[in-house]
Amino acid sequence: MSEQAQARSAPGTERSREETVTSFRRIADEQLRMRIGKVVSVSGSRVLMMIDLPEDHEAEHMPRIGDAICIETGRADIVTSVSGLSAPAAGIGEEEGNILIAELGIIGEFRVGEDGTRLFRRGITAYPSLGDIGASLTLEDKSVLYGTNNENYYRVGEMSDGSALPAVIDAKALLDSNFAIIGMSGAGKTCAAASIVRTLIQNRHPCRTVVIDLNNEYTNCFGKVANVMRLGSGSLSHWMLTFRELVHMIMASAGRLSEAELELLGEAVCAARRRYLQANPSNYVREGTELSTVNVDMPLPYRFSDVVGYLDRSAHTDQRYDGETFRRLRTRLVTVAKDPHFKTFLSSAGAQDSLAAFLSKLFRIPVEGKPVTVLQLADQSQDVAEVVVSAVTRYMQLVASATEQSTPFLLLLEEAHRFLPADPGDASLSSRTLGKIIEKSGKNNVSIGMITSQPRSLSMKAWEYCNTVFAMRMASASDKDYLHEVTPESATDTLSSVGVLGNGEAAAVGQGAPVPMRFRFRRLPDASLPSESRSRRVSSDGLAPLNRSADKDALQDVLDQWRYGVSRD
């Protein structure tokens, strides 16, 4: 109810100007709304309101872009957001006033729940009418609107409207599907992602998180609750890969395989798996199991050298392939085995069944106080990262399905456009695996958090199955236009501010946010800042402090990466 209406409903009482309004906060504390204006046009989800503020209140209560305004219809209180302001008929003389118009976008409405509590719900049951009053929101209104009074929502920062209200997210809705964090370089995407995960941990929300850290930035973000992994020689072995992943690795190192080579390679891998099982029957072969059932994708150990050995033996007996096919494939396999970039997958120790230990460490089973795994891939090539992301995503889906637990899995994917490209011609190895998970998000207990500075380069499928977007500062006009194309119309007003957002500030839209909102993420402690943010800190004279020893180590790491495919541990 507006201030004037409430005053009329209490006959015999008069309020002085000082008592009526001294500040927005005092009015809010008294649960009084300040009348802003009245509705003069309604079209779909857009409303025009003529601003009608008393002169002595204009400076303090004039609406601004992004402000929430309540339209009192008599049947429901409709919540709108200011998307534009104009003065279409400005006064010419000093005594003539201006006609001021606020353009509003409908967000939803306040309702009363079955238990009598006030609720905010997206969508409306009835449109406003011409002449309906538009009023400012009280602090109680804002608490209901932004979900700060909901114990199931978690605080991630502060609202940007100056109300000092906390900004909260709906963690369950966020993890029931996929979400995206987008923005230009330096806007604070890594800090935002870390802040969301830290919020889940601090509120003891059940979730196992794997961070694909392509730049080794997250090392300190989660403190003692994170397990930091750096893939070493044989930690993710060749035999843990599917045939497609193995082929990708071989072709990345030794060139494209012909159809005949692919067929021969599949036979050689199956033979190598059977050979290892025959040597270790008690460990792998169940009673009644036939070795003929072994297929190319079974995650059973085998020696890479046995694949080469099969080619050597079959070259003299198998007449289905010519000698050149055997020689080409053997040469490719030897090339891969010697390629230092693929040392991650090829262990000199031979085949050891470390799958259970690897999955236990990667997915924190048991958790043991560390629900987060940071998988560092900064010293790996794109081809290696492709294979790793594909394998990790695939195993995450399998583990989540097999355990049948209520604990959701979250994969935080840095530079998501590299693994989920928009151009079908650039379809990556991991895009198929990720695509399957994205389509079934909410059903398979796995969600993907996609982080990117190139929203236009992210696949349309990723956008179709993304239910929450945290948009940070974006300078590119084409990226901003594209963002409006892939998000609901109701988010347009909130997202229009992305060009003027500050560092660490975001516009959140979708199911994970109680309402489209602009807010600032809570700042991480200095000790928990991403490595990139820490490296940007400079001394008081404006110059980064010199560290000759560290510089030499960094240079040597670069040389080792060029020469051997890995940095020094």
UniProtKB/TrEMBL annotation:
Highest taxon, organism lineage: Bacteria
Chain spans, region Disordered: 1-21, 530-549
Coiled coil: none
Domain Helicase HerA central: 155-394
Name of the featured protein: ATPase
